[in-house]
Write a structure and sequence with these properties.
Elements (H helix, E strand, L loop, with lengths): L19 H14 L3 H17 L3 H21 L2 H10 L1 H4 L4 H15 L6 H18 L2 H17 L3 H18 L2 H17 L3 H16 L5 H17 L3 H17 L3 H17 L3 H9 L1 H6 L3 H14 L3 H10 L1 H6 L2 H23 L4 E3 H8 L3 H13 L5 E4 L4 E4 L2 H34 L3 H15 L1
Antiparallel strand pairs: 1-3, 2-3
Length: 461
């Protein structure tokens, strides 16, 4: 008989036995990976259906995973109508899950619709139907989150008044339950709506409210990065480009760490924009040749921004406008922030070029200015009018003979002083006449004469 003791079992090397639900889920995933989406959907449906008969923790876990996988299959098929109806089909199953899990599933299904082109209307309809169901079944937790998503969708289709109406009601309700994380999300969307309406003070107020609530909780990194991005955009609108760059840099770092490629690119674009607008076009080339630029700085948009920076550095209006025309989609149509600031910069470069041409002259024909700058007469005339009204150019347009008359700054200053002294002299004359009139009416003595004298002195003061 052998005296050798049996070798001890390596417990770490033994994998836990997979459940029947897990095996079924993995098999369905393999079928989906091969591209047979219809068969995979059928298999996922069977897994989900078992939750009604076997409501255990394991069944809930694999049913939830099956719902997400089934939604992915429908997205791959571009079957938006079936995906739209899926949340209604799943309502009996969703009642067996925790409310927080239900909210996550419903929001994910709505977000999955966004991955199919032209499904925004279905997303809105899905939100509205879900909100109605939440009201009937008294699911406030889910309703608040779906209403937040609906407000965001209304913002995307430029229905700003509808979005504000939803958000106003939401803020009142969510404040009562003190859900600070949801409040942050609501205020961020509200900031975007007010900014889109060009109401910058209200946008700043909403963003401040979002930051205040975020400071009271552990704010998710992506939400914090989005607030930094919005802070930078608002600082840009207020012409504080140095501060804007700092915010954009913080946002870029966070998006990069979270592997959010789309928003990291957006933050990098705005970093480049803030350097161009801050009259530091030379810094643009350093950014795009750095680590961040090499990772995210490819594509036509960054090519266009680099050319804009070069044109701005050389103060070349024609190169600037040629670049804006060549990259019209990337620098204008696709991004409202880029479009606004680059249009402002274009006008600024035009002003500088006009002032350079006009500088040696006291009088100059507008048509001659248009020829020198090589722009249409109407545009030059309009811009000169704006410059005169904004007082960036001291002069007047004699449109009868088509001539710009330029004033010397000292001459204008003397003229203003003369006008002011004339007004003061007229005021003194009126006060003197008022005093003499009251004296004639009421005499030199008496209370009324004294009252009139005091009134005249007060008026003169």
């Amino acid at each position: 008989m052998s005296n050798e003791s049996p070798e001890p079992m390596d417990l770490d090397s033994q994998e836990p036995e997979k459940s029947e639900m897990q095996l079924a889920y993995e098999e369905a995933k393999e079928v989906a990976a091969k591209g047979d989406n219809d068969k995979a959907i059928s298999m996922f449906e069977k897994i989900i259906a078992r939750l009604e008969s076997e409501p255990s923790t394991d069944t809930v876990k694999w049913a939830e995973n099956s719902i997400y996988a089934m939604a992915d299959c429908l997205v791959a098929k571009k079957d938006s109508s079936r995906l739209f109806g899926l949340q209604k089909e799943l309502r009996p199953v969703l009642t067996l899950m925790a409310k927080a899990k239900t909210a996550k599933i419903v929001r994910t299904l709505i977000d999955k619709l966004a991955e199919i082109d032209g499904a925004t209307d279905l997303q809105i309809k899905a939100c509205e139907e879900c909100i109605e169901w939440c009201r009937e079944s008294k699911r406030s937790f889910l309703r608040h989150r779906v209403e937040t998503r609906l407000a965001d969708l209304e913002l995307q289709i430029h229905q700003y008044n509808k979005a504000l109406e939803i958000l106003t009601g939401l803020v009142k309700e969510v404040k009562k339950i003190d859900d600070k994380l949801l409040l942050v999300e609501i205020y961020v969307i509200e900031t975007k709506v007010h900014f889109a309406l060009q109401n910058i003070p209200r946008a700043k107020a909403s963003l401040t409210a979002a930051k205040t609530n975020a400071n009271a909780i552990h704010c998710p990194p992506l939400m914090q990065a989005e607030m930094d991005l919005l802070s930078g955009v608002i600082s840009c609108r207020e012409n504080d480009y140095r501060t804007a760059y700092s915010y954009f840099y913080e946002a870029f770092e966070a998006f990069n760490l979270q592997h959010d490629k789309v928003r990291a690119e957006q933050a990098l674009k705005y970093m480049v924009l803030s350097r161009i607008m801050g009259d530091q076009p030379g810094e643009v080339f350093n950014i795009l040749k750095g680590k961040a630029g090499l990772k995210y700085g490819g594509g036509r948009c960054f090519e266009g921004l680099e050319k804009v920076a070069k044109a701005h550095e050389q103060r070349s209006l024609h190169d600037f406008e040629r670049t804006m025309q060549e990259y019209k989609k990337e620098l204008g149509d696709d991004d409202a922030v880029l479009k606004y600031h680059l249009t402002e910069l274009n006008e600024s470069v035009l002003e500088q070029n006009l002032l350079k041409i006009i500088e040696p002259f006291d009088r100059i024909e507008i048509e001659h200015v248009a020829k020198l700058i090589d722009l249409p007469l109407r545009r030059v005339q309009k811009k000169l009018s704006e410059m005169i009204l904004d007082e960036t150019l001291l002069g007047t347009l004699d449109q009868g003979i088509g001539v710009l008359v330029v004033y010397d700054e000292l001459e204008v200053g003397r003229g203003r002083l003369t006008v002011c002294s004339t007004i003061d002299a007229c005021s003194n004359v009126v006060d003197s006449l008022y005093t003499k009139t009251t004296t004639m009416l009421f005499g030199n003595g008496g209370p009324k004469a004294k009252e009139a004298e005091v009134a005249a002195k007060t008026k003169g003061a």
